[in-house]
Amino acid sequence: MATVGATADPAAHAHHEEMGFIRKYVFSTDHKVIGIQFLFTCLFFLAVGGLLAMLVRWQLGYPGQPIPGGSGLPDTMAPGGIMLPEFYNALVTMHATFMIFFAVMPLLVGVYANFLIPLKLGAPDMAFPTLNMASFWVFVVSGIVMLASLFVEGGAASAGWTAYAPLSAVPEYTGVSLGMQLWIVSIILFGASSLLGSVNYITTVVNMRAPGMTLFRMPLSIWALFITAILALLAVPILAGAVIMLLFDQTIGTTFFLPADGGRPLLWQHLFWFFGHPEVYILILPAMGIVSDIIANGSRKPIFGYHSMVFAIIAIAFLGWVVWGHHMFQSGMNPLLGTSFMLATMMIAVPSAIKVFNWLGTLWRGNIQFHTPMLNAVAFVALFTIGGLSGIFMASNAVDIFIHDTYFIVAHIHYVLFGGSLFAIFAAIYFWFPKMFGRMMNETWGKIHFAFTFVFYNLVFFPMHILGVGGHMRRVYDPNQYEFLAGFQGMNTFISISAFILFAAQVPFLINFFWSLFKGKKAEQNPWKDNGLEWTVASPAPHGNFDVAPTVYRGPYEFGSPEVEEDFLPQNVPLNGQERVTERSEPGGALK
Amino acid sequence: MGWLPVAASTYAADIDKIFYVILVVTGIAFVGVEVTLVYFLFKYRGREGRKAEYIEGSTRAEIVWTVVPALFIVGLGIASHSVWPKVKDPDRFPTNALELAAEAAQFEWNFTYPGVDGRLGTGDDFTVRNQLHVPVNEPVVVHLTSLDVIHSFFVPAFRVKQDAVPGFDRNRLWFEATRTGEFEIACAELCGLGHYRMRGRVFVHTQEDYERWKAEQS
Questions:
Q1: Nearest CB to A405: which of B22, B79, B189?
Q2: pTM for the whole thing?
Q3: Does the beta-carbon distance from B73 to A349 stay under 8 Å?
Q4: For A128-144, what is the HEC assignment?
C-alpha cells in the first residue's frame, strides 16, 4: 500500500485506514467488497428461490394437501394451508425470476466478475469504482422491489418468468396488477444495475490489464466474463425496452402487445427471446470459464486447447443472437424460419462439444486433485453434458412439436442452470473463499455437501426428462386433471421428496460458509498452488490489490511445466532471460 | 420403450422416429463422455510426487471434435426437416381435409363445425365446447384462434402442438387420426389460474359414427 499510496490519486486509492465502517463495508467502491456484498445478497435470494421451489414441489408431490406449516399463509395464497392455483402460478414465476435474475446471474457476474477481473488482470480496482458501487445498490433496490411484490394485494406476478403477453399485460387475465407492475419496475432496475456492471467489466478488461497481460494470456474465466459483459450490454437494454412497453400496455392504455388496435402478442416473444437467448448464455458462459480455471488447477495440467476454448466462447456468444426463434417453434412462425432457427441452434452444440472435449483433454494424463472445488467443477462437466445433449431434442423442430412446454424443457434448463451454473458457483465459492475472507472452508463438510447435492440433484431432475417425454406439461398446478398423466403421480412424489432432501443438503453448505468465515483455517497466500495473479497477494486480498503492478510473463495454465521443479508456474514469476520489471502503477490506476 | 404416449396420428410415428434417432446419437455421446470422464478421474487420480504430463492441446484433436459433432448435427437437422414441414407448413396440408375452427378462451376450447353446407362461417355452423369429434383416417385442418391470451392446443397422442394467438388468425394445424377412441386435449401454454384444467377431449369416430354424431348436432 505504501508504495502506491504515496503516488496515487487519492480518489482512486483512498487509504483504507482513513475510511469509516460505512465507506469500507457498506458504500464501498472496492471491487472485492462489492463482490462480497453481491455474494451475501445473492445467497439470500438463492435461498428465497429455493424455498419457493419447495412450495411448488409440495403441490406437485402432494396435490391438494395442506402445506406443512402452511396454515399461517394468508387465504389469498393457501386457505387452510391448501395452495390455490393462482398462488402456484405466482410461485412458479417468482422461483424462476429469483433464480435467474437475483441468484445465478449476479452470483456469476456480480460476484465473480467483480471479484476476479481486477485481481486476475493485475489491476488495483475496476475502471469506474463508483459506478460499480451504484450497480450493487441499484441491484439491492431491485431485489427489495421484487421481494415486496410477493406480499402486495393481488399477489405476485404469475404470468411465468417469460411474462408472455397478453397474459402479463392485462390484469384481468391473471388477477394480478400491482404485483406485475412491481415485477416490471424491478426488472428495469435490475437492467440498470447490470448495465452499470457491464460497462465497468468491459472497460476494465480492455484498459487495465497489467503489463504483459495480453488478451491471450487472460484466464478463461476472464474471457468468459468479458464476453458475457458484452452480451449483457447488448441484450439487457432490449429487455428493459420490452418491459417498459409492457408497463405502458398495463397502465396507460398502449397496445404494443395487445391484439386490439394493431398490437402483436408475438412481438413480446420476439423481444423477450431476442434478449432471453443471449441471457441463457450469460448464465452459463462465466460458469464455463470458472470451471476451466478450476479443472486446469485440479488436473495440475494446462487447459487443453486454450485458443479453441476462447473461440468456442466467442462462437457460442455469437450464435446466441440468431437462435431466439427456437423458443417460438409452436407460435405459428413461417415453417421455413423454423428450419433456419433449428440449424442455427444445433450449431451451438458444436462449440459446446468442443468445450466438453477440451475439459476431458485437460483431465487426460493429469495428476487430478479431488478438492471440493474440483469435485464441483467435474460435476459441472458431467451434468452440463446432459443439459447440452437434451438441448438437441428441443432444437429439432420436429421433436419440439411434442416436447415443447413439457417437463423436458424443465429438465433441460435445470441441467444447464443448476447442474451447470450452480455447481460452477459452488466450485467458485469454495475455490476463492480463501482469497475473499482469508480462511479456508472446511473440506470434509464441503465434500459431504457435494455428495448429497450431486446425488439428489440427479434424482430430482433426471426423472423430469421422462415426465416430459410422457407429455407432462410444465406449469400445471394439478397434473391429475389429466388421465394420461395420472400414472406419473408416483414419480412426481419421488421428485418432490428428493427435492426436499436436496434443499436440506444445502444446510451443511451454509453452516460451513458462515462457520468458516470466523473459525475456518487461516488461508495461505496460494492454497491451491494456482498461477493466477490473485494468488500473488495476501489472503484476504488487501485494499488496492497489488503493492506494485505485477508483470505477466505467460498464460495462467502453466501447470506441470518442465521448466520448473514445482508443478505450477505463476504468471508473474520471471524465468531465466525474462527481466523482472518493477513498474509502478500509474496515478489514477490506469495500467497499460 | 413405453415412455411416449400412445401414437394415434399419421405423423406421430415420424416424430417418434426422430426422437429415437436423437436418443441413440445423444445416448452414445452421453455414455462416451461420462465413461471417459469417470475413467480419466480414476486413471489419472493424483499421486504424491508425480507431475502431470505437460500437454497444451492438439490441433488434430480440435479438428476431429469440431467436424464430427458438426456432421452429426447436420444429419439430425436434415432428419428433422424431413418431418417438420409435413406437420407445420400450411402449403403442404392435405387439400381434401375436413375444416374446423377452434377458439381457445380462458379456460376452454370451442370447436366450430360447418353445418350441412360443409362450409365454415355460414349460418348453419355449430359449436361444441371442449369436445372435438373427428372421423378416423381422414385429415382434419383446424383454424386456431384465441379470444383472450395465448393458449396452446396439445394432443399428446397425435404429437401435435400449436399455439392459439389472439388477434392472429392465420394459425392452422392438421392431423389425421389413425385409431378410434378418446384422447385428451391439453393447454400447453400457461394461460392463467385455470391453465391446469383447460382440458378437452378428442373423440375419433368411424366414418359412420361421425356422420351420426354430426346429424344429431344440427
A1: B189
A2: 0.94
A3: yes
A4: CHHHHHHHHHHHHHHHH
